[in-house]
From TrEMBL:
The keyword Isomerase applies. This is Triosephosphate isomerase. NCBIfam families: PRK04302.1. Keywords: Isomerase. SUPFAM superfamilies: Triosephosphate isomerase (TIM) (SSF51351).
Amino acid sequence: MEPEIFVNFKHYENAVGKSCEELLKDFNTLKNKNIYYCLSPIDLRLKTEFTSLNIFSQTVDANGYGAYTGSISMESLIDIGVNGSLLNHSERRMAKSDIIKIIEKSKKLDFKIVLCVESLDEVREYSKYDPEYIAYEPPELIGGDISVSNAKPGIIKNASEICNDRNIKLLVGAGVKTYEDVKNSMNLGAYGVLIASGIIKNPKPINKLISLGNL
Ligand code: G3P
C-alpha cells in the first residue's frame, strides 16, 4: 500500500502567502493523489487555483456561518473546495466538547477530519467518535530529528490495532525526515505520515518530498 503523506505547511515564513503559492506550483508537478497539503488559513483560497491538489485546512471550528469573528467554518471551506482539515494539532489544541461536535458535523457534511492526538490514551478515547483519520504525534518530538517510528514503535503498533478495529486511518508524525522513517511507520501499521519541517525547512522542498515519499 502506498502511504498517504500529509505535508503541514504550519506558519513557516517560506510556506505562507506568496511563498505558499510558489511551493504549490512546484508540488503541482507531482500529480500524486496520495499527497495532502495542509495550508495556513490565509492561503486556503489557493484551492481555487490548484484544483487538482488535495488541500486541507490546518484547523476548523465547530460553528457554521454567522457572527463568529475569526472563525473557519466547515461550510466556508467546503464552499472553496477544501474538504478536510487537521484538528487539535499540538500547536492548536481544542476542547474535547468542540472536537466531538466537529467530528459529528464532519460526517454529515462528508468532510474529512484528521484528528491529532498526543498519546495512546487519546487514541483510545477519540477513536470512539470515529474520525476519518487519527494522527498520533508525540509533542516532544515535533520539529526534531528523532522520528516517531524510532522513538515510539510500540505505541504506533497499539494505535494501529485500535484504529484498524474501527476502520480509522492512522497517521503518525513528528521528526519524520526520510523514506526509511516513512517505511518503518507503515511496517508498524500506519496508513500514512504527517510531516512539516522535514520538507518545508529543506532548501529544496520538492526534492525532499520526492525522496521521502519514494515518488
Ligand atoms: O503536523 C506535523 C508536525 O507537527 C510534525 O512536525 O516538523 O516534526 O515534521 P515535524
